[in-house]
Amino acid sequence: MQTEIQKVIPEFLKVHVPFNAKDAFLKNSKPYLTENLYKALEQEQRRVTLTIVKTKMTNVELEPQKEGFREQWWNADIEVENTDQEGQTNISTLAYIIKAKLVDGQWKIDDLGVRSRAWNP
User: Fold this and answer.
1) Could you tell me the pLDDT band of residue 17, with boundaries at 50, 70 and 90?
2) What pTM was estimated for this model as a whole?
3) Cβ contacts of residue 68 below 8 Å, gap of 6+?
């Protein structure tokens, strides 16, 4: 049986991970984020590449790292399909560590980062 947090993390990743120059990923991510993380992400600029014009999430696998009643850490292996300027696609994997926190009875993403060796050739 999936726990609530196992539903929240993939829903968040569906709006956070994909890249398309026209998307407002931060606005779409806001319902899933704590206020502190939202403010921090507002200050950062999303990195783009010269060749990748679109990224789509195709699969996510979660593994608990530290479970608690009010705070949890999860590893997320996210399979993405990248599309370049010529329309060619390739598959790669992003490896994230995600901190979720219980806020007013709802799980929110409180921090996330890329784990080492995140991109696969």
Assistant:
1) confident
2) 0.81
3) none
